[in-house]
């Protein structure tokens, strides 16, 4: 009994293992959320942001005093290299920057600017990743929609081939007609196989973006497309919002701000640096090692240290001029970025308007192609047209359906792209 029971448990476990995992249904919104959570490009940008936070703390700490320890041991030798004496000392040094020409303050400000720039870069990568995910999701949807159209066509062509075989057996059609029907079925089967491969490739690309390893198990969920999107937005108002809300433009402005501060950093090299120091310990050399630990030998000293580079063959001047040119380039890039973003937003808007008209026309084209195909089938039944004419009509219907589906999916992507300009 126990052996039989154990055998049943083992068989049950093997059966569970053998059952393939169910497909994972993922909506387009869920795919975008998974990409933000799992995408490696985003993780890299997050780590870079953390680095910049560390750099802010480091720049802040550089403004304040540091404490260091110094110690030395020396042996004195005569001309014959015989030891004649020893010298030992050790002490603590507290050093506080007093004046650096504004470098420490500027470095702290620059580190905070770089942190803001890193955060903007992270936002941009997130936005780009979401758009890429939407496109990848749509690619899968498009491939599956096309496969559906092809499979529907195959059903029609299979029925047509069946009819042709029956007619051929009754000697009511010719061998070329039957061969053409067989060719059409073979052709559509090849297209179906190719499209199934496209689906797998598209799913793999989507899986990489959203962090799903077993991409073949991804099952997308059909989604609707908002009609007449352009009627809900005002292009002129959105264009006016770009300098405030667009990530790319804000990054260009922030880069220009950094360039301005870099000029000041280079100009600070013309100024002297001053720091204060306090030393405490055995400042006078002792002839025995043990004497450096006796409190009577401990002393304190305080002072100021300064330095000033006076002549360097124009190196500092060239550094300033180079920084100014860099800033001039950055200023031009600010305008260039805004112009490019504005042009892309306008282009996307007018593409959407064009697609709104096209989608309606493509929908009518599908209806017309369906009517035409039904008519051609009837005409063929009376042998008023050839098999080639009938198959061409079916091909036209298939392409009309594909064009309509692709246009609607492209419209959805452009809606997402338009919204991304203001993120």
TrEMBL record:
Which family does the record assign? Belongs to the outer membrane factor (OMF) (TC 1.B.17) family.
Q: What is this protein called?
A: Outer membrane efflux protein
- Please give the coiled-coil regions recorded for this protein: 352-410
The GO molecular function terms of this record are: efflux transmembrane transporter activity; porin activity
Tell me the first and last residues of the signal peptide: 1-23
Species for this entry = Leptotrichia shahii
Where it sits in the cell: the answer is: Cell outer membrane
GO CC terms of this entry: cell outer membrane; efflux pump complex
Q: Does the keyword rRNA-binding apply?
A: no
- Which SUPFAM superfamilies does the record associate with it? Outer membrane efflux proteins (OEP) (SSF56954)
Domain of life of the organism encoding this protein: Bacteria
Keyword vocabulary terms for this entry: Cell outer membrane, Coiled coil, Membrane, Signal, Transmembrane, Transmembrane beta strand, Transport
Its main subcellular localisation, reduced to a broad class, is membrane
Classification from the root reads: Bacteria, Fusobacteriati, Fusobacteriota, Fusobacteriia, Fusobacteriales
